[in-house]
Design goal:
The chain is α/β, with parallel strands linked by helices. Helices cover 29% and strands 23% of the residues. It contains 5 helices and 6 strands; from the N terminus they run H-E-E-H-E-H-H-E-H-E-E.
Length: 129
């Protein structure tokens, strides 16, 4: 038996298949469905879980070296929320792209984790190291 804190078998399976330089998307509850990408939907209700809760859960098991977010995240969220994301992604090079460019990166991802987050543009692409 694995001795890790993540219990969701679909999420564990997805994380196990991410290799060096692969991308993993963590998306809010309103993010569009991408039929060509495996999606593990762990949304329960609005804000359960949030993107930041998922990041906190997978960081000990996932070596991310880069992250991408939509530039619009900065415009639509207050300083407290932006600071919480910056803290959660501490040590990871974070790049903000226009939302249109951000979405062009999605098809190359190994998988997508859909959360219940309702924050505008609270979507991440994590690149494994």
């Amino acid at each position: 038996m694995l001795n890790i804190k993540i219990l969701n078998p679909g999420l564990l399976s997805l994380l196990a298949r991410v290799r060096h330089t692969n991308a993993l998307v963590i998306a809010d509850g309103r993010f569009p469905f991408w039929p060509q990408i495996e999606t593990v939907d762990i949304s329960l209700t609005n804000d359960i879980p949030t993107v930041l809760q998922v990041v906190a859960a997978i960081r000990p098991e996932f070596n991310a070296t880069e992250a991408y977010m939509a530039r619009e995240f900065l415009e639509h969220n207050n300083a407290r929320i932006r600071a919480a994301f910056a803290k959660a992604l501490s040590g990871i090079a974070l790049k903000h792209e226009p939302h249109i460019e951000f979405k062009k990166l999605i098809p190359s991802a190994i998988g997508l984790i859909r959360t219940g987050d309702v924050l505008p543009y609270a979507n991440l692409i994590l690149i494994s190291g």
